[in-house]
Design brief:
- The complex is a heterodimer.
- Chain A is mostly helical.
- In chain A, helix 4 (109-125) packs antiparallel against helix 5.
- Chain A has 21 helices and two strands.
- In chain A, strands 1-2 form a two-stranded antiparallel ribbon.
- In chain A, 70% of the residues lie in helices and 2% in strands.
- By secondary structure, chain B is mainly α.
- Chain B has one domain: Helix Hairpins, CATH 1.10.287.
- In chain B, helix 2 packs antiparallel against helix 3 (68-98).
- Chain B is elongated, with a radius of gyration of 22 Å.
- Chain B starts with a helix and ends in a 7-residue tail after the last helix.
- The model of chain B is unreliable at 121-130 (pLDDT under 50).
- The interface between A and B is large, with 51 and 51 residues.
């Protein structure tokens, strides 16, 4: 039994407690420990990914209790991939938060950041449905704190909407879990897979209700169309680095859908035939359309990126909802790409807000921002990736999704929507870029008909502190990762295909979880008196 | 017994949903609390209803109640309690900062964040307080 599996949960939990209890009055030490913890998680995640990349399934039994009775953590290829993605994202985001000073504009940023990581990583690793609920709550309660970090009337207002919406989602999650337990008598995922497969057809009404309720819960997390309302305002209002970290939070919903609907309710399960595939794909297509229309209709840069998140989740869901190995493999590639791309865009939007006079992210004209060439260039590259134009990873991801949906009966719809919404996204992004970076009026001092000024350039209007290099390093790191995802698309895609194959052959997962020996009785009974 | 538990879950859920759809934050929070009560009773009943039976193995007892839903419902109670506390504080913050306790955005009274953030940042020395 490898103890490394629980490290991504324990490490941030201990680090958060340490930061909040011991170094709460030392900003520098907070930054040092938070960064060190995040880098350590990255190392552990890379190790887990390496260990599971040959198909090994790692199991961790908490308290050494055997599976259906005890809670287990499981690291297979899919879990390890998402754990690695989260920790890869967390490092540049944390660097950005430190470099831009966001972490000191309110209390407890670093502790909440670590708790957020704990919740996300735990949700990816757990092998127990109720434990998944608990980790959802951990990541949500940390996200509530992070979302209203540094306060402000608008942020609180949107925060209330966000918290209430997710409380309703959690309630629905509990109803679904209660129904599942009442029908099957277990909440361990591997055990559920076996018992649901053995349920008789005419006694399946309850479990079908539970399956659909669960899908709705995950659709809330993943912002699928009728349930996406919480996302645009919440992400657009969050502080920049927090929104960038949230880019992986929607992926928790996507991960849960992939896990539950390949392991517990696989596509060939007789009792849930026709329940999801009939409406998940249309919902995904509508989500993509709405997200891309939102990009076109946005009047501010942060709204634009928030709608880009909605659109990318729609694209991801299209690939998932065909429920084939090729579709899942394409979805995994697109998940990696869209997480990095949206995070980069959120950070760039925040850079623009920091440097623009008045801090406005609206499309109204404002003096050119300092260092606008670099920022505009990075925005251009990130927008190309997000909109799915060659040569960056969005294009590869979109090709993979188009390819995976080719065999589907509804291929014409899928292709038409994906291709036409791409065009809408390109228009939306070019409008935003030209409004923010080109339609800038020069400060009065440099107008051609103004009297000549001293040679020294005029200071920025609101005398903002000199931009430091660290934020741009963080954005640059995300862009470098995007380029790497593009360049190594071939090896990555082979890896994701193997991941999808592992998901569609769940027998090893089930046997590892259920047949690994562990304690089944307490010490008193076991050792005898 | 079944009728009583089932109808209490149903009534609590219906009342909770009605309250959640109200305009102002306080009824909405009461609604989420009602919904969490409903789901707690529901979870408790998910292990079948058994009256006056022990959940833990004992000598000479043959009928038991399922102990797992009791553990689940305990977890759910703790979590919903914490969440309710959070939503009360956030709602209070929203009310105190904008003197308005509507849940929805109001198009006639837009609140924008930009200026406040950047002013806090540029003006307030070490780590601004909200």
């Amino acid at each position: 039994m490898s103890h490394w599996v629980i490290a991504p949960v324990i490490l941030p939990a201990m680090m958060a407690a340490f930061i909040v209890l011991v170094v709460r009055f030392h900003p520098l030490l907070q930054r040092v420990f938070s960064l060190a913890g995040t880098v350590a998680i990255l190392a552990v995640a890379a190790g887990l990914y390496w260990t599971t990349s040959d198909g090994t399934i790692l199991l961790y039994q908490l308290g050494n209790w055997a599976a259906p009775f005890g809670i287990v953590l499981v690291a297979d290829r899919l879990s390890a991939l998402f754990v690695l993605l989260t920790s890869v994202l967390a490092v540049p985001v944390l660097l950005y938060a430190i470099g831009s000073g966001w972490d000191m504009r309110g209390r407890h940023f670093h502790a909440l950041f670590q708790f957020q990581l704990m919740g996300i990583l735990g949700a990816f690793l757990t092998g127990d449905a109720f434990n998944l609920f608990v980790f959802f709550e951990v990541l949500l309660i940390a996200s509530y704190g992070l979302m209203i970090h540094s306060g402000g009337a608008r942020r609180f207002r949107v925060g209330v909407q966000y918290v209430v919406y997710n409380l309703l989602g959690s309630t629905l999650f509990l109803f679904a879990l209660g129904t599942i337990y009442a029908e099957t008598g277990t909440l361990n995922m591997a055990d559920l897979a076996q018992r649901i497969a053995a349920l008789p057809m005419d006694d399946s009404a309850g479990i079908r209700v539970a399956a659909v309720m669960l899908l709705m819960v995950f659709a809330v997390k993943a912002a699928i169309l009728p349930l996406h309302f919480w996302l645009p305002a919440a992400y657009a209002t969050s502080p920049g680095p927090v929104a960038a970290l949230f880019a992986v939070m929607t992926k928790v919903g996507a991960y849960s859908i992939i896990r539950f609907y390949t392991l517990i309710f696989p596509p060939d399960l007789a009792i849930t035939q026709g329940l999801f595939d009939t409406w998940l794909l249309p919902a995904a297509l509508l989500t993509l359309t709405l997200g891309m229309l939102g990009i076109l209709g946005a009047r501010r840069l942060d709204d634009l990126v928030a709608f880009a998140v909605v659109g990318s989740m729609g694209m991801l869901m299209i690939a998932i909802s065909v429920f084939t190995p090729a579709g899942i493999a394409a979805a995994l590639y697109y998940a990696v790409h869209s997480t990095l791309a949206t995070a980069a865009l959120f950070l760039l939007a925040d850079v623009v807000g920091e440097r623009r006079a008045g801090g406005s992210l609206g499309y109204d004209p404002a003096p050119p921002i300092p260092g606008s060439g670099l920022v505009a260039g990075l925005f251009f590259a990130a927008a190309i990736a997000m909109a799915g134009l060659p040569p960056l990873s969005g294009f590869v991801g979109k090709l993979l999704i188009l390819n995976a949906t080719m065999a589907d009966a509804r291929m014409a719809w899928v292709w038409a929507v994906i291709l036409s919404t791409s065009l809408i996204a390109v228009i939306g992004f070019s409008r935003a870029g030209s409004a923010i970076f080109w339609k800038a009026y020069a400060p009065e001092a440099t107008l051609p008909d103004a009297p000549p000024q001293p040679a020294e350039p005029a200071p920025p209007l609101d005398a903002a502190p000199r931009p430091t290099a660290l934020p741009m390093v963080a954005v640059g790191a995300l862009m470098a990762l995007l380029v790497a995802v593009t360049v190594f698309a071939g090896p990555l895609q082979r890896n994701f295909a193997a991941t999808a194959a592992q998901l569609f052959a769940p027998a090893p997962y089930i046997s590892v979880v259920l047949e690994t020996p562990g304690r089944t009785v307490g010490h008193d009974d076991g050792e005898g008196h | 017994m079944e009728l009583l538990v089932a109808s209490s879950v149903g009534v609590l859920t219906a009342a909770g949903i009605y309250m959640v759809l109200r305009l102002r934050t306080f009824p909405v929070i009461v609604g989420t609390a009602l919904l969490s009560y409903a789901v707690n009773v529901f979870l408790f009943a998910s292990g079948r209803l058994a009256v006056n039976q022990p959940p833990i193995l004992r000598d000479g007892v043959s009928a038991y109640t399922d102990p797992l839903p009791q553990a689940l419902v305990l977890t759910a109670i703790v979590i919903s309690f914490g969440m309710t506390a959070v939503v009360v504080i956030v709602a209070l913050g929203a009310y105190l900062s904008s003197r308005d306790d509507h849940v929805n955005d109001r198009p006639d009274r837009p609140i924008r964040q930009d200026h406040q953030d950047r002013q806090d940042h540029h003006g307030g020395g070490e780590g601004a307080q909200p």
